[in-house]
Design a protein that fits this description.
By secondary structure, the protein is of the alpha/beta class. The chain is built from 11 helices and 12 strands. The strands form 3 sheets. An 8-stranded parallel β-sheet has the order 3-2-1-4-5-6-10-12, sandwiched between helices. A two-stranded parallel sheet has the order 7-9. Helix 1 crosses helix 7 and helix 3 crosses helix 4. The longest helix is centred in the N-terminal third of the chain and has 17 residues. The chain is globular, with a radius of gyration of 19 Å.
Length: 287
């Protein structure tokens, strides 16, 4: 049996569906029993737990051949990443007590970056879980193609999307959440020892301009992309309700300046199959 966190999201849901397609038995972790009903109907065991309850998480992990764990995204963290540190401590405690056979943890491109930025949270996760006495794989996923979900309305209504990734012609390592979920499924079905890192990106890197082109294809009209001036980022993020936008800005700078990237530009990374055209088409259909 495998235990899967995050099944109500894109990655965890894709991982669970792929494992079920391979005939695996699953225990899914949800924060609300009602959200587990659909999975129970598919034959899954449902565990109600979250990253604030180590005892409930321990129970969810006990007896599992392997587990998939992840932190919820925190785009506006408190200084010092207090929220992430607390959840990482809870997760470590539950994994140590639950003693699953192996662990796949969702990490990110740039988790090892020394420069201060938003992705340092996943670096903290990697350093902590590396101390477990279980086989651990950190799946470092590229920039999610599905981050473009926030651009669907603008593409439909204004035929223009904004980009913080710049210059807009420059390709960036990206991947679909669907491929991340499939990779989680594959990794859990593998055997290994110790701690390892696996990088994951699409076969082709994607520029913001390519995202606009994908919207054009999906919507059947011309969609362009405009770079948001760097000196406006902080005021925009604060207007959106952020109180500590610096880590997010630092992260975007890291992508734009190239110090957030895979080793050897991903030459040894796993490759996902979903293209940016397919990912954008799915977002447009959902939106």
């Amino acid at each position: 049996m495998y235990t899967i966190m995050g099944v109500t999201g894109k990655v965890g849901g894709a991982a669970a569906r792929d494992l079920l397609n391979h005939g695996s038995r699953l225990r899914v972790v949800v924060r609300d029993q009602v959200k587990g009903d659909a999975w129970a109907e598919r034959g899954c065991e449902v565990a109600v737990a979250d990253l604030h309850d180590s005892k409930a998480l321990t129970t969810a992990f006990e007896g599992a051949e392997g587990v998939f764990v992840m932190l919820p995204p925190i785009f506006d963290p408190a200084p010092g990443f207090r929220e992430a540190k607390a959840m990482i401590a809870t997760l470590y405690e539950a994994l140590q007590a639950g003693q699953p056979g192996k662990i796949v943890a969702l990490s990110t491109i740039g988790a090892e970056a020394a420069n201060p930025n938003l992705l340092n949270q996943l670096g903290l996760l990697e350093r902590c879980l590396s101390g477990l006495s279980r086989p651990v794989t950190f799946l470092r996923a590229a920039w999610f193609m599905e981050n473009a979900a926030g651009d669907v309305a603008a593409a439909k209504e204004k035929s223009v999307i904004d980009s913080y990734l710049q210059p807009v012609e420059r390709p960036v390592s990206m991947v679909s959440a669907v491929d991340v979920g499939r990779a989680v499924s594959s990794l859990l079905r593998e055997q290994w020892t110790g701690v390892r890192v696996e990088e994951l990106e699409a076969h082709q890197r994607v520029s913001p301009k390519a995202i606009a082109t994908a919207f054009s294809k999906s919507l059947g009209k011309s969609v362009s992309v405009e770079a948001v001036p760097r000196d406006q980022w902080e005021s925009i993020f604060r207007a959106q309700g952020m109180t500590n936008p610096a880590p997010r800005i630092q992260m975007i700078d890291g992508f734009n300046q190239g110090w957030i990237d895979f080793q050897d530009q991903g030459s040894g990374s796993r490759k996902g199959d979903v293209t940016i055209d397919e990912a954008i088409a799915a977002l447009v259909k959902e939106g």
